[in-house]
C-alpha cells in the first residue's frame, strides 16, 4: 500500500515537472510577452506571496463554505430524486429525460434567472450549484439501482425486506459504486458552477476565489490570475483524490482490488 502511494506521488510530481518544463519552454520562446504569459518562477513567487496573506485564506474559506453548502443540498435532493425515479417506472419515463437535459444545460445559463430571483447574493450562487450538481447525483443513484441484479432483488423480497429497510440494507449499498461516481461527477459540476457564479455574482466586502480572479483580470495582473487558477486546480485535485480513495476502499471491500501492503 505504502509503495503504491509513493509511486502515485512520484507520478504526480513527474507530471507537474513536465508541465512546468513545457510552460518554461513556451515562455522562453517569446511567443507572448511576459506581461501576458509570465514564466513559472514569476507565478510561483506570486502564489507564495498570496499564500502568506489573510486575503487568500479568507477568500478560500468563503468559497469552500459555499461549495460545502451547495453540494450538501445537492446530495440530499439528488439522492431523494434518484430513489424516486428508480422506484417508479412512470416517473423515470416522464422525468428521466428532463433530469438529463438539466444536467447537460450549462450552469452559466441559469445565472440570469438566479440573479433576478435571488438578487446578487450567496443564494443565487448556491442555487446554481444545486441545479448543476443534483441531476448528476440523481442519475448516479438511478443508474446504480438499475444495475442491481434482479436475482438479488427477488432474494430480498423473499427475505421480507421492503420499503425503507430494503433501500437501507440492500439497494443503496449495492448501488454504492455508481452512486459514488454520480457524486464525483456532481462535485465537478458544482465546482464549475461555483467558479462561474463567483465571477458573475460579485458582492461587496465578500472576498472569494472568484472575486480574486476577477480582480486580477480587471488589473490585467496575469501572474495573480494564474496563481489563483492554480489554487482552483489544486482544490479540485484534492477533492478528486478523496473520491478516488473512497472508490478504491469500496472496491477493496468487495474484492475488486488488491488489498496487500506491496
Automatic annotation (TrEMBL):
Record GO cellular component, one term: plasma membrane
UniProt-listed Gene3D superfamilies: MetI-like
Record Pfam families: BPD_transp_1
GO BP annotation list: transmembrane transport
Domain annotation ABC transmembrane type-1: ranges: 60-243
Keyword set includes Cell cycle: no
Keywords: Cell membrane, Membrane, Transmembrane, Transmembrane helix, Transport
Topological category with respect to the lipid bilayer: Multi-pass membrane protein
Record field: transmembrane: 12-30, 67-86, 107-134, 167-183, 225-244
PANTHER family membership: ALKANE SULFONATE ABC TRANSPORTER-RELATED, MEMBRANE SUBUNIT, TRANSPORT SYSTEM INTEGRAL MEMBRANE PROTEIN
Sequence similarity: Belongs to the binding-protein-dependent transport system permease family.
Protein name: ABC transporter permease
Source species: Mycobacterium talmoniae
Amino acid at each position: 500500500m505504502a509503495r503504491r502511494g509513493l509511486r502515485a506521488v512520484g507520478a504526480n510530481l513527474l507530471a507537474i515537472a513536465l508541465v512546468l518544463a513545457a510552460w518554461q519552454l513556451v515562455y522562453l520562446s517569446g511567443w507572448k510577452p511576459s506581461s501576458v504569459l509570465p514564466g513559472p518562477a514569476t507565478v510561483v513567487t506570486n502564489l507564495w506571496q498570496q499564500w502568506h496573506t489573510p486575503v487568500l485564506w479568507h477568500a478560500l474559506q468563503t468559497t469552500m463554505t459555499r461549495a460545502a453548502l451547495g453540494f450538501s443540498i445537492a446530495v440530499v435532493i439528488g439522492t431523494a430524486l434518484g430513489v424516486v425515479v428508480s422506484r417508479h417506472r412512470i416517473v423515470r419515463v416522464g422525468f428521466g429525460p428532463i433530469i438529463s437535459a438539466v444536467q447537460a444545460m450549462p450552469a452559466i445559463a441559469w445565472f440570469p434567472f438566479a440573479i433576478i430571483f435571488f438578487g446578487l447574493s450567496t443564494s443565487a450562487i448556491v442555487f446554481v450549484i444545486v441545479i448543476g450538481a443534483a441531476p448528476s447525483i440523481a442519475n448516479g443513484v438511478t443508474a446504480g439501482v438499475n444495475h442491481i441484479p434482479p436475482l438479488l432483488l427477488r432474494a430480498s423480497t423473499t427475505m421480507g425486506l421492503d420499503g425503507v429497510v430494503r433501500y437501507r440494507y440492500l439497494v443503496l449499498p449495492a448501488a454504492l459504486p455508481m452512486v459514488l461516481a454520480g457524486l464525483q461527477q456532481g462535485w465537478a459540476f458544482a465546482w464549475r458552477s461555483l467558479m462561474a457564479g463567483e465571477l458573475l455574482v460579485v458582492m461587496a466586502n465578500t472576498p472569494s476565489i472568484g472575486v480574486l480572479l476577477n480582480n486580477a483580470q480587471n488589473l490585467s495582473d496575469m501572474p495573480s490570475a494564474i496563481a489563483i487558477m492554480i489554487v482552483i486546480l489544486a482544490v479540485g485535485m484534492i477533492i478528486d483524490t478523496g473520491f478516488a480513495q473512497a472508490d478504491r476502499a469500496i472496491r477493496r471491500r468487495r474484492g475488486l482490488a488488491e488489498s496487500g501492503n506491496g
